């Protein structure tokens, strides 16, 4: 086996379930890239990030997942205009000069995944959660001309609290997107605390989670007739976008 000249990886916390490792292993194999590898960088604190850079001189690119999409930004030399507007980074490119540039491919993946489900009456969305992933989703919705409302545990200037979500909220929001980790394996019994009985066949329920394939959030929405989609297709689209960023085929 030749020595790895090109290393890529995923930065996150408790990411043993990672989709990316298998996806890129298959990609490298299909392209006969024997000196390429993709690994998990599972860290408990973002303060460990500089150590990863120091110990992996062959790093060419990274993906970033929960909970570091915002926390990683101060460690970067530059971020793209879109990532700056979004306020979150999920793709890092290492330049030839050793500089770190941040991008966001989440919004692209989500936009591509949601678009085929949209009908003329889908005008407004509820975004469950206010973390880094929700910021990419909000940006994608803006590009699609869809207005949105954030929902969080406690009401803030930018969001409403879960307790305020009612029948009227569902009447006014035809798309509901779970951007929280609630329901991710192994905690598959968890789900966002919203009144699922108000979903209808006119609603879309989109979960960014892909493991399990069908979360309780999706199952409850489907029971009411809503169109449902998990996060797998979004992940594939964003992974391909990351690959193009790393290889300057943006």
From TrEMBL:
**Species annotation:** Flavobacterium qiangtangense
Q: Describe the location of the Shikimate dehydrogenase substrate binding N-terminal domain by residue ranges.
A: 10-92
Q: Which UniProt keywords apply?
A: Amino-acid biosynthesis, Aromatic amino acid biosynthesis, Oxidoreductase
Output the SUPFAM superfamilies linked to this UniProt entry. Answer: Aminoacid dehydrogenase-like, N-terminal domain, NAD(P)-binding Rossmann-fold domains
Its protein name is Shikimate dehydrogenase family protein
Q: What Pfam families does its record include?
A: Shikimate_dh_N (PF08501)
**Top-level lineage group:** Bacteria
Pathway(s) this gene product operates in, as recorded in its UniProt entry:
Metabolic intermediate biosynthesis; chorismate biosynthesis; chorismate from D-erythrose 4-phosphate and phosphoenolpyruvate: step 4/7
């Amino acid at each position: 086996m030749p020595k790895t000249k090109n290393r890529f990886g995923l930065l996150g916390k408790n990411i043993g379930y990672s989709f990316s490792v298998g996806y890129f292993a298959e990609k490298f194999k299909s392209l006969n890239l024997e000196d390429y590898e993709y690994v998990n960088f599972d860290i408990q604190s973002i303060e460990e990030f500089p150590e990863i850079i120091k110990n992996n001189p062959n790093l060419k690119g990274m993906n970033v997942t929960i909970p570091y999409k915002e926390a990683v930004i101060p460690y970067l030399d530059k971020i793209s205009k879109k990532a700056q507007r979004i306020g979150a980074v999920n793709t890092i490119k290492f330049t030839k000069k050793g500089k770190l540039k941040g991008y966001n491919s989440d919004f692209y993946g989500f936009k591509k995944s949601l678009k085929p489900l949209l009908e003329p009456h889908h005008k407004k969305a509820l975004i469950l959660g206010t973390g880094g992933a929700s910021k990419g989703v909000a940006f994608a919705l803006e590009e699609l001309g869809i207005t949105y409302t954030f929902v969080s545990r406690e009401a803030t200037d930018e969001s409403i609290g879960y307790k305020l979500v009612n029948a009227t909220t569902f009447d006014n929001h035809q798309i509901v997107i779970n951007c929280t980790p609630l329901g991710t394996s192994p905690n598959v019994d968890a789900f966002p605390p919203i009144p699922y009985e108000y979903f209808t066949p006119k609603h879309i329920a989109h979960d960014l989670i892909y493991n399990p394939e069908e979360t309780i959030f999706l199952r409850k929405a489907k029971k009411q007739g809503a169109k449902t989609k998990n996060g797998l297709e979004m992940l594939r689209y964003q992974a391909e976008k990351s690959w193009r960023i790393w290889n300057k085929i943006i």
